[in-house]
Amino acid sequence: MHIMEGFLPWQWCVFWYLVSAPFLIYGIYLLNRQVRERRETLSLLAVSGAFIFLLSSLKMPSPVVGSCSHPTGTGLSTVLFGPFITCVLSLIVLIFQALFMAHGGITTLGANVFSMGIAGPLLGYAVYRVGKAVNLNIFVNIFFVTFVADLFTYVITSIELAAAFPATHGGFMISFATFFAIYAVTQVPLAILEGLLIALVFKYIVQSRADILVKLKVLTPEQVTKIMESFK
Amino acid sequence: MIPRFFIKYKLEIIFAIFIVVFAAVFLMNNASIQATAKPGQETWQGSDDMGSAAIEATGYTPWIQPLWTPPSTEVESLLFSIQSGLGALVIGYFFGYYRGQRECSKSP
Question: Is residue A2 part of a domain?
Fold first, then answer.
C-alpha cells in the first residue's frame, strides 16, 4: 500500500494531503482527550499502536500469488479506539518508514495515510458497528473488522493510483484492474492471517484487562463473564 | 463431548492450523514458481515495488527522490527488524505487566 516517494504527481500529493488533514486533526484532538482524561486506557493504546508497528513491518509472502506484502495492523486500534485515533497512529508508522526505510514517502504521505489510516479503519469500524448491532460473536466480528481494514487499504491504494495514472486506452477502470491485481489480490491471505491473529490477541486482552474494554465500551460486564466462561 | 483443551484453546488452534496451511501452500507454490522461473528472474517481489514498476512502465518518472535510501537490502531489513522489535517490545512489556498485576491481586 505504500506509494513510493515521487510516485504521485504533485497535484495528487496535495489533493490527498487535503483529504487526510481533517481526519488527522480530529484524530489528534481525540487522542489528546483520551490521553488527558482516560489515563487508564493508555496501556492498551500503546499496545494497539505497537501492533501497527509490528505487523506493518512484516513483509510476508502471499502463498497463492507469488509476491510479498505486509499487513497493516490497524484492526485492533479501530475496534478499541475508533478510526480517528487509528489514523494518527498510522501516521506515526508511515513517517517512520518514509524517513528511515525510504518505504513510502513524505510527498505521498497524504495518500498513504488516507488508505492505511483512514479509509481502511473507517470501513472496518462500519463493519464493527454492524456486527455489534446484529450481536455477532465479538471474535468473529474482530476477525472481519481486521480483514476489511487490511484488505480495503490496498483497494484504496489501487484507486489512488488508478486515478493518478489512468490507462491511455480504457482509462481508470483498466488501470484500476492492473493495480488491483498487484495490491489487493496479494493481500487476501495476509488479511485472513491478520484477522485471526488480532482475534486471538483480543482473547488475551479480555483475559488480562477486561476492565479497560468495559470502560472503552467494547464489551459489557456480562459479555466479559460469558467470554471468560467460554475459555475455561 | 469435546475435550476441554479444544474449547480453551480454540482460537490458538484455528490460528495454528491456518499458519500450517499458509506455509504448506507457500512451499508448494514456491516449488512450482522456482521450477518455471527464468534464470535471474526475481520471484516473491514486494507488491509495493511491483506497483512502482507498473507506474514506471507507463513512462512516468518520479519527480522527487527520498532524502535517504538504505544502501542495501541488508540495511533495509535491519531497519524493518528494528521496527518489529520496537512493536514487540511494547506488546510484551504490557502483557507481562498485566500478568504481574493479576498474580499480585491473586496472592495477598
Answer: no
- Number of domains chain B contains: 2
Structural domain boundaries, residue B75? 70-108
DSSP labels, A10-44: HHHHHHHHHHHHHHHHHHHHHHHHHHHH-GGGHHH
Percent of chain A clearing pLDDT 90 (strictly above) = 95
Cα B42 to Cα A120: distance, rounded to the nearest angstrom: 30
- Host domain of residue A136: 10-223
Nearest Cα of chain B lies from the Cα of A135 at a distance, in angstroms, of 19
Distance linking the first and last C-alpha atoms of chain B:
38
Nearest CA in chain B to A49: B87
Whether B56 is covered by a domain: the verdict is no
User: Residue B14's closest chain A neighbor by CA?
Assistant: A196
ipTM (interface predicted TM)? 0.94
From the candidates B22, B47, B63, B106, which should be mutated to test the interface with A, based on the most A CB atoms within 10 A? B47
Q: How far apart are the first and last CA of chain A?
A: 40
Which three cell numbers mark B93?
A: 512489556
Local confidence band at B37 (pLDDT 50, 70, 90 cut-offs) = confident
* Stated pTM of the model: 0.95
Please tell me which of the candidates B22, B86, B88 has its beta carbon nearest to residue A63.
Answer: B22
Q: What is the CATH number of the domain that holds A146?
A: 1.10.1760.20
Rounded to whole angstroms, the Cα distance separating A124 from A116 reads 11
Q: Which residue of A has its CA nearest to B9?
A: A231
CA distance B6 to chain A (A): 9
Contacts of A154 in chain B (CB under 8 A): 47
User: In the predicted model, what is the mean pLDDT of chain A?
Assistant: 95
